[in-house]
Design brief:
Length: 317
Amino acid sequence: MSNPVNSKKRGRINVVLNHKQDDRLSQKDSLFSTDQEKEEHDILTRFEKKLEDYVGLEEVKRLVNEIYAWLYINQRREEMGLRASKQVLHMIFKGNPGTGKTTVARIIANFLHEMGILSKGHFMEVERADLVGEYIGHTAQKTRDVLKKASGGVLFIDEAYSLARGGEKDFGKEAIDTLVKAMEDHQHDFVLILAGYSKEMEYFLSLNPGLPSRFPISIDFPNYTTEQLMEMVRRMLREREYELTKDGEFHIKEHIRKIRQEQERTFSNGRYIRNIIEEAIRMQAVRLLKENRFDKEALLTMRREDFNFNSSHVKLN
Ligand SMILES: Nc1ncnc2c1ncn2[C@@H]1O[C@H](COP(=O)(O)OP(=O)(O)OP(=O)(O)O)[C@@H](O)[C@H]1O
Ligand SMILES: [Mg+2]
């Protein structure tokens, strides 16, 4: 087993690896430490790298490790003639707007595909209107059509609690029943992720006692801290090849601190940061045209006045 191979065979990950005994548990962030190990476990290494581009998201990083380890050990168990277990991977994502739910669901769809769990790994995002119809029977048909399209991938239902909006008589209930049936029907090869605000999601699950146990994986997406949001500012600017002045950095930080306090619930976290960066890029462009300055230093530099929050068009939520 000196030549490890990771390949997908008939929808299942097939891994052969070297024997090595060391203290893996002491590795807090990554399961593997040496370059050789990282290469052997290239799928995990690639996804760890991808997730490193994002600030925080510790729970997600841990889940990806867990799923990888489970499938890997399953493979090793099979090699030893032991039983390999199946697991339900439907998930609930709870968190405020812009906390990374959709971004993470896309990454997970890709990951599960590469791990051979999902045959296609595409991502389909729907909301109430895509599932709920206008007359009896219409909803079940609409939901089944969506399920068909989602087959082999991740079906992501945003603001899932809106399915329970109208109570018992509402067609939303029919959509839920159709989804539950599909989840039980093993022919359906898909992972369902329900997403939305924490409180509403919890209420929704409490109204449907059969539901929570069908979603064994629940991930919280907390609001980002001021420091995490500032880290996003830095990364987004670096990516776009801009440099922020110290004064500019201080100015943004003060603003973020203030709006985090005022808009705790609806403030759109990462999306807000992306939007203020994009607005600042336009503001800087206008300033440079006015100043008639096109040297490299000027083109690179993002200044305090490029972030004019008083006249900003960016919505907070
Ligand atoms: N951890 C992060 N690191 C860097 N950028 C992030 C992070 N989380 C979110 N973002 C940025 O914020 C934007 C919004 O994220 P996303 O659409 O995944 O949020 P969401 O939770 O699905 O929001 P909503 O509930 O409103 O649909 C993304 O385009 C991304 O650029
Ligand atoms: Mg989203």
